[in-house]
Design goal:
By secondary structure, the protein is α/β, with parallel strands linked by helices. A hairpin with a 7-residue loop joins strand 3 and strand 4.
């Protein structure tokens, strides 16, 4: 249960909020010490240290919750090795127009390219054209979605098929990823659709 994508969405949001609260309490406490002019020696030092620690912990939690998702060369190689048996599988991207999401899309693309998958232009809703790459669509979502048209579920989405293996490979590398079956009228049936959203 604690390793589910839904839990990851809640965890990052929760950590960011806790970090903001600790930061606010710590800074408020430091200001209060200065304004009230408390000069009780050890008591003042203890409060000052406590508030400073709260500020540092709050900053640390916010930094960790907001740090970019990474999908470096080692992750790319592991994913490529896992997916090589499905060489030639067509896929397209849609991405949130955020530098972190765009960078993650290109990192995932390198892994799929190394596995021999075939990147193609998104059939519906193209709006972002990466330099030297096929057009990608634009999405607004959190995390990563792997979408399969209903009529291709048995070809790509079932257990042991390319989209299911891709989903598990991305989750194994720490990405918050979901799979979604969509009607044929919503997405084309000629590719697996990978949607890269903002960090949860």
């Amino acid at each position: 249960m604690l390793h589910t994508p839904a839990f990851s969405l809640v965890l990052f949001s929760w950590l960011r909020q806790i970090g903001e609260i600790l930061l606010l309490v710590g800074l408020s406490g430091e200001v209060a010490l200065l304004v009230l002019g408390i000069s009780k020696g050890a008591w003042e030092r203890g409060l000052a240290i406590t508030f400073a620690v709260l500020v540092l912990v709050g900053c640390g939690l916010e930094w960790w919750a907001d740090s970019p998702r990474t999908f470096g060369p080692a992750s790319q190689q592991r994913v490529a090795n896992t997916l090589k048996e499905f060489r030639g599988t067509p896929f397209d991207f849609s991405v949130e127009l955020d530098p972190e999401a765009v960078a993650l899309m290109e990192d995932v693309a390198q892994a799929l390219d190394a596995a021999g998958w075939k990147r193609q232009a998104v059939a519906q809703g193209s709006g972002y054209i990466p330099p030297g790459q096929p057009a990608a669509g634009i999405v607004v979502l959190k995390g990563v979605e792997v979408q399969i048209a209903q009529s291709r579920q048995s070809d790509w989405g079932d257990a042991g098929k390319p989209a299911a293996i891709l989903l598990h490979a991305m989750r194994n590398e720490g990405l918050t990823a979901f799979v979604k079956q969509v009607p044929d009228s919503q997405e084309s049936t000629d590719a697996i659709h990978i949607k890269i959203g903002a960090k949860p």
